[in-house]
Structures are given as structure tokens and as C-alpha cells.
Specification:
Helix content is 45%, strand content 16%. By secondary structure, it is of the alpha/beta class. The chain is globular and about 40 Å long. The chain starts with a strand and ends with a helix. The relative contact order is 0.20. Bound molecules: adenosine-5'-diphosphate and zinc ion. The site of adenosine-5'-diphosphate has 18 residues, from α2 and α3.
Length: 211
Amino acid sequence: MNLILLGAPGAGKGTQAEVISNALSIPQISTGNMLREAVRNGTEYGVKAKAAMDAGALVSDDIVIGILKERIAQDDCKNGFILDGFPRSVPQAEALDEMGVKIDKVIEIFVPDETIQARVSGRRVCEMCGATYHIQYKPSKVEGVCDKCGGKTIIRKDDEPQTVLDRLATYHKTTEPLKAYYEKQGKLETVIGQEEVADTTALTLKAVGVK
Ligand code: ADP
Ligand code: ZN
């Protein structure tokens, strides 16, 4: 099954993508995580992507589409995958179509903008391995320390309040038209993000037909 997770920054699509990934044993492909890794490693892609990411703007299509193409060509994607953060614009969705990638379902995690600002302020990311946490919804076992590698968990630069506003504006303008794009194909399912992550998870699993 090939799935797309759609949602505003901070709506919790990464968390839900991880849940589906575990439930269906298919990889979660997060372009945001891959780009952050490229930045940490100082690769050519990373160097090019950094300024746009820090500003809360979208990274250029040629970079993101290139990264995505390489990733889904890997062996573990044979039985399906979950795209988390891609496509983020209609041209990116068209690029997927052109690659011949068939999408089965698009799950939108909907959270109102007012809720997002508050949530994003609690997000943390491991500076070593990129694992993501939330001080309230998904805390690490020891505050400030990554469960997976022991690295330090920090606030992402693009999670600063003003940058979040810019990212939300980009989402509404550039990414949200994808809802109509996939609705027309009868593939869109909307999950309303709940106060408790477990409640959202239950709705997401139902939407993909697991429970
Ligand atoms: P969020 O969903 O919380 O905004 P992500 O981790 O998905 O965060 O993405 C972080 C940043 O990475 C984005 O603000 C953007 O700069 C870049 N990025 C990720 N995916 C894409 C994409 N498909 N196209 C362009 N830029 C992207
Ligand atoms: Zn870590």
C-alpha cells in the first residue's frame, strides 16, 4: 500500500506516519527528516536546502524530488511506503504521477492553526540522529536526552514562532490545494487530530483499514 500523509506543520503527521509504518510494516519516508539529515551531514543537497528550511520555506523541487526518487527505488519500498511531507505542492504530486507511483490513499491530519502554534513550541528533535519528540505528547524518557542514541534534544530552528507562521502560510497556499487534487481521485480521508495522540492514532488506523 502506498500512502501519503498530509497535514500542516505540527499537525502530527510524522507521529501518525510512524504508527502506520509499524502497523503495516512499510517504511515511513519523511522528506523533512531526510533533508535535516542531509544538512547535518553537510551533503551537497543539505547545503542547498538549509537556507530555505531555516526560513520555513519549501526546498526546491529538483532537490526534494531527487531525494524522494532515490529513496523509493530502494528495496524496502517494494511492498509500499508512507510518504510523510511529500508531496507538498501540486507540481510535486504531478512528479509522483510521472514517476508512475500509484497512490492508494491520502490521509490528511487536520488540526486548526490556533492549536498548531501551541503544539509546535513543545517539539524537540535529536541533534545527533534526528528522532523527534514532544515534551507533552511524546516525551523522551529522560528530558533533553534522545531515547534512541543519547544525543541532545533541541528545538528546531524552524519551530520558532515567527517561522511557524510562515510555514503555516506556505502550507495553506501551496500544500493545501493537494486536498482537492486527491479528493477528485477519491483518495482523500481526513482525520481530525485529537487532544490525545492515542485517540488520533485510533482514527488513523481506522482510516487505513487496520482496526
Ligand atoms: P513540518 O511538516 O513540521 O513542516 P517537515 O519535517 O516535514 O516539517 O519539513 C521541514 C522542512 O523541510 C520544510 O519546512 C521544508 O523546508 C522542507 N521540506 C520537507 N519536505 C519538503 C517537500 N516535499 N518539498 C519542499 N520542502 C520540503
Ligand atoms: Zn538521537
